Amino acid sequence: MGATIHEALGGDAVVLRLAQAWHRRCLADPVVNHAFSHGFHPQHDERLAAYWIEALGGPATYTASLGDQSMVTRMHSGNGVHDEMDRRALTCFEGALDDVGVVDAPLRRTLVAWFAWAIDRMSDYHESAYDVPDGLPMQRWSWDGPVASDVS
């Protein structure tokens, strides 16, 4: 496949719609909404989309202006093991793919595999955010899986 996942998905606007759909589903889920119970940034969806865009082969806007992988990982660390929440977040993502009309089977499989992998990476430091090292590489995903230089 020649196009990046970001391009195959439809670019920035579709990724933003996907982030918005996922966030709506998470807020409606009785387990996943706990992750947002202490509030979230007013531009959460836009920031999330920028992160996803970069992770999926689009422009590096997130790391250029919003943060780095260590910061993102710290935000998701120190909350203990939450396997059920992770499974439900993935289910919300699959529903969000439906919401934005992603029907291409290879693209869906790739996106679901990426999201499951990303959830696992965010759980690498479940004991404490202080355990997250500085300088983690951006977690990028290709049609073949994690980009080798970025695998943690």
Give the termini distance in whole angstroms: 25 Å
In helices, the fraction of residues equals 40-55%
**Tally of separate domains:** 1
| Structural class by SSE content | mainly alpha
Write out the CATH superfamily name: Globins
Q: Please tally the helical runs, counting DSSP H or I stretches of 4 or more residues.
A: 7
CATH classification class = Mainly Alpha
User: Are there runs of 5+ residues with pLDDT below 50, and where?
Assistant: none
The main sheet orders its strands as 1-2
Q: Can you tell me the CATH topology?
A: Globin-like
Which architecture name does CATH use? Orthogonal Bundle
Give the secondary structure arrangement, pairings included.
Layout (H helix, E strand, L loop, with lengths): L4 H5 L2 H17 L15 H12 L5 H5 L3 H7 L7 H17 L5 H18 L18 E2 L2 E2 L6
What can be said about this structure in brief?
The protein is an all-alpha fold. It has a single domain (5-150), classed as Globins (Globin-like), CATH 1.10.490.10. It is 53% helix and 3% strand.
Report on this model:
With 152 residues, this protein is mainly α. The protein has a single domain (5-150), classed as Globin-like (Orthogonal Bundle). It contains seven helices and two strands. It has a two-stranded antiparallel ribbon with strand order 1-2. Helix 6 (83-99) runs antiparallel to helix 7. The protein is globular and about 40 Å long. The model has no long low-confidence stretch (mean pLDDT 85).
List keywords for this structure.
3% strand; 152 residues; two-stranded antiparallel ribbon; mainly alpha; 7 helices
